[in-house]
Amino acid sequence: MLGFAEDTKNDRKCYVTHGIMGHMDPKQPPIKRKPFAAILSHPFIHKVELVLPQEIYEIVKKDLFEAAEKPIYCRVILPLKALLEGEFFNEYIKRGNILMLSEGIPGVDNTYSLSEGILTLHLDKETYERAGLEGKPEGVKGKRGTKPRWIVEINLRLPSMLHGKKGFDRIVYAFKNVLTTPVTWLFHNLTTTVLDPEPLEAHFPIHKTISPRVTLDKQVKMPHLKPPTETDAAYGNDFEDHATEIQEWLALVLLESPRVNIDDKIDPFLSRYTPPGESFSNTTLVKLTWQGFLSPSWAHKTFVDILLAIPRHSWFAYCVGGFSDTWPGESKNCTILRLLDAPNEYILWEVE
């Protein structure tokens, strides 16, 4: 039987961009053009990884990493109704700006999130019908093997979202009578204003500080990173091959796979992988990893700081990964590679 390709309309896809960053004002860094917009497109970020040559890391580590302010987040147990009560609702949602993400397996459990004042509820059909809230179907319509699910989005910053208003009281009723189970949340406050007392402290949160985990002396076989030139008649196919091979090599570096190590002597019967290209150089790399509950604004600022601190003709790779948003555990992520000896050129891989 021939292996005919199935419908890939709803499968994950990787979009690749080769471009020029253009001028960047440090006081007003870009937010709407690539590759900066790709970082900010993540609603919540689970992991940020940076790969760069060790000699460059030694130059910038003191000012860029050791002196940098470390991101902080909290883990707290709350029922949904607590988000709409007292100072928590007024200070964090109406006046402030917070990120919240609940526990649960997407596509299986009832999960909730809060970003930019919009509370999003992912509910199974039974819970949705009992709650009596207005929503829309979620996922691929008519897909076999999946139970129907619904998504409800509530903008809590609207002027009508006040106690005593009919629509708001309907939401409060659903949270008090249907969606009553307390869940564990990840909480991140995006504002710098210090409240006394903090409304969150009444719920006994566990505070977490994210410090980068540094992997030193990673000696690898490094391929040629420069993509083929656009003047070549076969540029399209050549660039596709180059982008696929470099993305695979970067993925192995991020996984700390021994297949890219200088001294790797794996039996070719077990693995036939070799770095792409006809030749490669031996390079010592450093990998930094931030893992936890990170905001897109922090990841964007960190990327801008790295661009400004690292010498213009050096290369680095910056990978941003989100939380799982489907049942198999897939998540949105992007990888940005600034090219060697090409200060403004980059290659961007976006998986979504």
Explain how this protein is built.
This protein is an alpha+beta fold. 23% of the residues lie in helices and 31% in strands. The strands form 2 sheets. The chain has an 8-stranded antiparallel beta sheet with strand order 7-8-6-5-4-9-3-10. Strands 1-15-14-13-2-12-11 form a 7-stranded antiparallel beta sheet. The model has no long low-confidence stretch (mean pLDDT 88).
What attributes characterize this protein structure?
352 residues; alpha+beta; eight-stranded antiparallel sheet; seven-stranded antiparallel sheet; 15 strands; 23% helix; 31% strand; globular
Helix content range: 10-25%
Count of DSSP H/I helices: 7
Proportion of strand residues: 25-35%
Low-confidence stretches: none
**Strand order in the sheet with the most strands:** 7-8-6-5-4-9-3-10
Query: What distance separates the N and C termini?
Result: 31 Å
Overall geometry: globular
Structural class category: alpha+beta
Task: Describe this structure in a few short sentences.
The protein has 352 residues and is α+β, with helices and mostly antiparallel strands. Helices cover 23% and strands 31% of the residues.
Secondary structure layout plus pairing:
Elements: E1 14-20, H1 36-40, E2 45-53, H2 54-66, E3 72-78, H3 86-95, E4 98-102, E5 111-115, E6 118-124, H4 125-131, E7 136-138, E8 149-155, H5 166-177, E9 183-189, E10 206-209, E11 213-222, H6 235-254, E12 281-294, H7 296-309, E13 316-324, E14 331-338, E15 345-351
Antiparallel strand pairs: 1-15, 2-12, 2-13, 3-9, 3-10, 4-5, 4-9, 5-6, 6-8, 7-8, 11-12, 13-14, 14-15
